[in-house]
Amino acid sequence: MKSEFSNSFSNHPNDTGGHSQWGSVDVVSLGETMGLMRQEPSDQLELQFSSGFGGTESNVMTQMSRLGLKARWISSLGNDAFGSRIAQGLANEGVQVFCPENNVNNTGLMIKTYAGKENPDVAYYRKDSAASRLDLKDVPSELISTASLIHITGIYPALSSTSLETTMQILEIAKQSSLLISLDVNYRAKLWGDAQSVKVLSEICCSANHDLGRGD
Asked: Which of 22, 56, 177, 181 has its C-alpha lying 20 to 30 A from 48's C-alpha?
């Protein structure tokens, strides 16, 4: 699955062929957006679900676009129905989407069930998801350097060793390009251990111009 905004680039992240293939934007972010299955109220024995999608970083980019800013979202989506829906849904919101094609890993999925409660129980199926396997070689550096601000959360680097490495490498490109850096700590204890999270988030915090602290 390749979104309408995807393009073929050199495998080297700093090689753009000598010309710009992307315009400048106000803000860029990278992260995982997952398919969503939400339980709906029903008197029937069978569970009834509605479908959608959600992700912290793409939610922020959507709001930035609605405010009239040029927003870009970087990730990877599986070659599946949820991947197509996410790419098209964000494009419809005016967000510039870059998602390298991934025919191996699926789009992540979250399922919300209520069981008579006001707040849902949420189950995540994101191990080895397409987004968690995004490699810097698939992300041209101009996608970062042509932005004014980069927004990073504490969720994406916690997904896998690959997403951690990609996050830190992209952060370095952002610093070299003199971008403003925004960090939403958004700490998720289930995703990584205390020692690693303190080390990584502290390093990102030292580079950030703006940071928000929240978590589960």
From this structure: 56
